[in-house]
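SEQUENCE-TO-STRUCTURE ENTRY
===========================
Question of interest: how does this chain fold, as expressed in backbone structure tokens?
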Amino acid sequence: MKRCKYLLLLGILYLISCKNEGPPPTQTSGYKPVYAPKIPDSEITFSSGKIKGEPGKAVTGGNRLFQLEPNKGIHVIDLSNPGSLRTLGFINIPGAHDLEIRDHQLITNAYNDLLVLDVTNLQQLKLIVRVDNAIRLPSLSIPPHSGYFECVDKTKGTVIGWTKTTIYSPKCKY
């Protein structure tokens, strides 16, 4: 009997705590997902010199150091004269998160796509292999703050961030 009273009390507390907020607004401030874009091969380029931003993983290949700048690309530094290191340039690869060197091949990613580049001649980068959607990046499936947001559409790809904006007839809230 005591158990039934507790269950009844819990049920009443649950019903009292429920709020009926009514229908969602037709227009409100909220978050919209940013999806990982498809990076065209033509955007994977080499340029001489670039100011370093956030440093990431670094690997050596021959007399070169390849240092990741997360989400932007890879710095290439000449190691042939250890007393006088010199920056050779920057390989622009938006969405790059990791890298590895095997022989003269750079293995990296452009968001979800796996890339293998021939870096023998940096001035003439060659994309050897591209495997679309080979890598699963962690998805940011909820916005940074509670409230209304545009629901995630999994057919559009991986969510890599959120933008605060005006949203219309939102169906999602947390």
User: Anything to note?
Assistant: The longest strand covers residues 159-168. Helices lie at 2-17.
